[in-house]
Model the fold of this input.
Amino acid sequence: MRNSLEKTDDIEALVHEKVAKLEKFSDRLNSCRVAIEKIHDRPSSGSPYRVRIDMTVPGQELVADSSPGEGIQYTALEVVIRDAFDAARRQLQEITQRQRREVKSHPAQEMTAIVSKLFRDEGFGFIKTFDDREVYFHRNSVLHDDFDRLEIGVGVHFFLEDGVEGPQASTVKIVDKPGVRTGKSAGYEVEPPLGWE
Done:
């Protein structure tokens, strides 16, 4: 903040509230930086305030700002802040809708593979396909709440989809028979090809 604009508890609380709403609105929001400036002490017209919001989402940076123009004199700072966050929300809504359309435009492909990496505490892992690709999956993608049954080397069926950050697995299903604990299956087991690590 410049030109002796003092930060107050009310303004800080309003900014935190608006950022929290943006985070709830879009789970793709990686960062959000808010700059509030008093650009004039006594403008002949227009607001003395400018609010700029810099946001990052995967693969893109967004900027929203609010600086009421000529003819709108002394708009309250709270109003300028709300206007800037409204513009930020509209941008997030537009990018989210566009990314969803891009993901849906590629049909899913069913595949079989083996769990190659597992980060149980973080809730995700990677599947290695037989053509040597590693594909990300999240615990929410594993059917029947079977994420905790997964172990490295377990065979799975899944659908390969184009995610926002690259290929990802959805509807991951353990190949072992239901009810059989991983590693103790008396039935079907996927064997990796020779020379495959």
Summary: Residues 9-104 form a domain with the Double Stranded RNA Binding Domain fold (CATH 3.30.160.100). Residues 46 and 73 are 4 Å apart (CA to CA).
